[in-house]
Description:
Layout: E1 10-13, H1 14-20, E2 22-24, H2 36-48, E3 56-65, E4 71-76, H3 78-97, H4 102-110, E5 111-112, E6 120-121, E7 123-124, H5 130-136, H6 154-170, H7 177-186, E8 188-195, H8 198-205, H9 217-231, H10 235-248, H11 254-266, H12 272-282, H13 284-287, H14 289-307, H15 311-314, H16 318-328, H17 335-343, H18 348-368, H19 373-388, H20 394-404, H21 408-415, H22 423-438, E9 450-453, H23 463-469, E10 473-474, E11 477-478, H24 481-488, E12 495-498, H25 500-506, H26 511-519, H27 524-529, H28 537-554
Parallel strand pairs: 2-4, 2-7, 3-8
Antiparallel strand pairs: 1-8, 3-4, 5-6, 9-12, 10-11
Helix pairs in contact: 3-4, 3-6, 9-10, 9-12, 10-14, 11-12, 11-17, 11-19, 14-17, 16-18, 17-19, 18-20, 21-28, 22-28
Amino acid sequence: MVKESEIVPIRNSIRDLLTLYYFKIPIFQRSYCWSLENWQDFWYDLTVHMTKAHDFFLGSIVTKDLGKDATFEIIDGQQRITTCIILLAAIRDYLTENKNGLSSEIQTYIAHKEALRAAQSRLNLNKNDDPFFQEHIIPLENKIGEVKNRGLLLGERNILKTYQFFRDNLKAYSPNIHKLLGNLLDNTYVIVIQVTDDMQAYTVFETLNARGLDLTAADLIKNSVLAKASNERKLDSVLILWDRISQNLSNYSITLFLKYYISMLQGMPIREKDLFKQIKTSGYIENDVLKFTSDIEKVSEVYLQLLEPKVNYWEDKEIPKILNNINALRLKTCYPLLLAIALSKHKTSIKKELFKEIERLGFRYSIIMNKNPNTLEIKYSEWARKLYDSKMEMQTLKDEIDKQKPSDKDFQERFKSKAIDENKIATYILKEIGKRLQGVDIFSVDDSAALEHVLPCKPEKWLQYIKDNNELKINGEKVELPEFLEEITYRLGNQTLLLPEDNSKLGNEPFDTKKHMYTKSEFKLNQDISKEKVWSLKEIMKYQEIMTDLAIKIW
């Protein structure tokens, strides 16, 4: 653990920060990525605080002393410091255009100039962003007004857009520009936390809860990987591999992926807060950084096919359906085992069977029984490690999965009164029940089914009808109408599926109106409901009993 004596947080204004220190972003750190929402929040906070007497706390930044010329590496906080300097540059250029000599003073906070020496930038960004930043933001004389978006890298575009946003907004603050500048330099402050190494930095990071935190476990892992590769002259190869990882998982959390991957390798669940430490202490990076990066690049492709499964990859049209079901049910703890199965050399048919068993287990265990996921998470990781190391036969794994399934009796008892208020999960259940009833999936196309509550979620038109057809009792006990509605509206027996356009037409209409639409539906459940004379708790329980009998056979 980090000892308090080792870390002394320092309160610095932006003026102090950009007078006393020079900062570097690790050359492998991610690019500048703040966007419109971030700029607007920053600008709002800054300008609103102009009218108030108290200071504006920008958050904490974590730095590492590089041991030369008051230069510090920013481990966490790069987006905020970069944004401050871009705003100073925008104010500087605005004043220069208006022939205000204050622009030269502002420049001292952007780059320090001594006699007979070249100006030294207060901030250096990563390898992709820094050339653009040094050419167009840092110099007092620049041509940023002539720069076009086309052809710029993503980080460069974000820097340019941030600058343009501030320039556009400065016009409205022309009479108060000196006050704005003073507010940024003297009334805006950060807490600087200096650490000695990346491990200590991440421990500190996990205790912070300030807005704008930039660091993730994946960032630190990437920095460690690339730093090690650079020392071993393998940087180019490792950079190519990491770029592929980033591309594969551009829409997903790399941290979460690495958590699942390391949990599979270790045979135990790894918490995100422990991920960086686990990777560092396990020697994956130190022992063979190129192999480690190559391995995770290959596995990232497999992981993507678990999240966005394609038939041509799996060579079986049923596997993507099963995996999409697992994703819809949000059965996150099973991913170490899914990875191990996908990476195994077993036949596609066996993989499909195991994926289906995991879907059934997750549905019974987590969705219907609401059991504590921690026990199952431990099992998933243990099984994943054994399977990955070829120390578990497929039949043994099936038997182990079966042991964890809640009994038919417990499952039936819970299913009979189960209420589901999440549309995706309810839709999944009803689709599966419909397939079992009819032998065909009526709603086989994605988004072709809309969830329909027979007794609607907004039952204004139903209130008298409900009172006339129900005793307002739950489990034999008298309840008030709101409690009654809350209890029965989301029961599975009150839910069915319709085509989206039919669902939209029906809205909250009375039961007699809905029945007419149900008769036209190809979904057997709707046809059966249309034959009911009334719709009350009795009918809801009846259909939930029917679903329960089918559920035992499906799951």
